[in-house]
Amino acid sequence: MHRLLKIFLILYLAGNIFGGIALSWLTLHPMSSPITPPQTERQRAACQRHSVQLQDVSLAASGGATLRGWLLQPANPNGDVVLLLHGVKGNRADMMPGAPGSRASFAR
Hints:
alpha+beta; two-stranded antiparallel sheet; 2 helices; elongated
């Protein structure tokens, strides 16, 4: 009985330790959703309907990571700029007009 209790305690502690490590890793490294071709095409079509030019851009961050985004330029620019930042688990297509759940829209 004493041996069985010892084995249970060791398994319980190991489960908590490894579970805590896994939970911490997932919290610090959440999985993000990549942009799919249908999302890209939907955004290009929405931009085309509103006479907005969409082009791919990328920037090199100081840590060596490449940041990718879209630059949208309207047919009649007024000089204003809007910078949209998505959530931790999202992608740039989630912030665009026409995206499911997005409240963004092109100004008229």
